[in-house]
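Running this now, will post back.
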Amino acid sequence: MSHRPSRTILRCWAALCSVLLWAAAQAAEPAKPVTPVRLCFESATIQPWRTAEGRGLNFELLQQASQLVGVPFTYQALPWKRCLASMQANEVDGAFAASFNEERLEMGAYPGGKTVDASKRMHIDRFVLLRRKGSQVQWDGKQISNLNGPVGAQLGYSIAAQLRSWGVAVEENNQGALALAHRLMLGRVAAVAMGGSDASMVSVQPDVAAQLEELPIPLTEKPYYLMLSHQLLANQPELAQRIWKAIETVRNSAAYKRQERQALENMPN
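Update: finished.
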């Protein structure tokens, strides 16, 4: 009787060896690194949302969203108009924190597209009007009156377009909020439209507090979003939706709500 293995057994051994060799090769091959999502933001401190150094609630929110999605985010501080232009040119994958503006739809995508989904926002902030003490400039919630010059605004901010739509002359400036307040103090502009967080920050400066005041009715209140590049949305639509959904999930979590509430309570009045 022959003790040689049958051809069937030999074929099975050969197949098993092939599988084992393939598995060993796969185990030896290092995992491909995950490509990070590159985000830019305005190189300015807007408390409590963000600082130019990469701290604040926006970064806390995005870091937790990144962990949920399983993709790392990298951050680059840029002047705001350059940040938006970099997203449009696909030099970065997204920009934050941007209020909704139809003109920006050419530069990148909001969650929900043209009918932006406010549930996917990062936060809500307001714009206020500052005037010199003793000035007759008024804002009644519908129109600005008694202006004897333009209203100052920071370059690239959506409030400038909104003011112009109300028939208000606007002077845009690429300086920060404190420099803008000083222009008002020097009489270079008749009033200043400024983000509420910025206004709270500059108002603690003794010279600003002595000379300027904030009108009680906000000019507007807006949600702010993470915009993503059209290229990322086209090439990785599922990832884009997961990122926006993760932002919503984190923002609605009890832990983040507590963190946001504490940060807002510690803001100067």
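The chain has a mean pLDDT of 89. More later if anyone needs it.
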